[in-house]
Amino acid sequence: xxxxxxxxxxxxxxxxxxxxxxxxxxxxxxxxxxxxxxxxxxxxxxxxxxxxxxxxxxxxxxxxxxxxxxxxxxxxxxxxxxxxxxxxxxxxxxxxxxxxxxxxxxxxxxxxxxxxxxxxxxxxxxxxxxxxxxxxxxxxxxxxxxxxxxxxxxxxxxxxxxxxxxxxxxxxxxxxxxxxxxxxxxxxxxxxxxxxxxxxxxxxxxxxxxxxxxxxxxxxxxxxxxxxxxxxxxxxxxxxxxxxxxxxxxxxxxxxxxxxxxxxxx
Length: 266
Hints:
Number of helices: 9
Strand order of the largest sheet: 3-2-1-4-5-7-6
Number of strands: 7
Helix content: 25-40%
Number of domains: 2
Shape: globular
Largest sheet: 7 strands, mixed
CATH architecture of the largest domain: 3-Layer(aba) Sandwich
Oligomer: single chain
Radius of gyration: 18 Å
Strand content: 15-25%
Structural class: alpha/beta
CATH superfamily of the largest domain: Vaccinia Virus protein VP39
């Protein structure tokens, strides 16, 4: 299934070249940064813990702002039947990510969050960790994520709070303003997603204030006037319909059809 083109160059149309260059320069030493232990790692732990508790068997996972692929690799390990796609604006980060994950089940591309080179309604789980504040168009990036999420898909986002910004090393790599309290849930809800949880991440409280927001897409419903038609809960999609290929072998696919048919009284 060809969801994206390999190593798509990041467009400079809506991303500051200096911003991307800083992360390109940081890529070689990024995994050895002290922030991995005190900030990035604990945030990944919180996001992965929530995902494991609430998303049982995702077929497709998207990691937006994947960096060198540390969280992507953990997702591929936690969900051994899923395929993981990682997106980052830094081509050097993508280069390192491609060497740290399971090649057979992972794909990476350099791209802006605001211009995801992905098909509609594909991903059962999308994670975004500490990258939303880097986007030039946060609403546009979240709208793109909403577009690529499958029906009943889950989004888990971790972002900083304006109350206490990140340490100097990350401030030098950042641009724009930090997220205001309550801004991230509001932006997610404005994209049509249902916000289900908003909670702080206490494990990083000694270094920064961060919040985790979880949301879901709304279930697909039969259009009015088609009550007698065959239910179509999965599409159509622009590219190959992954659920149509997996069903009926995939138990999750069968359960989705059953729930959809039940709500129609069939």
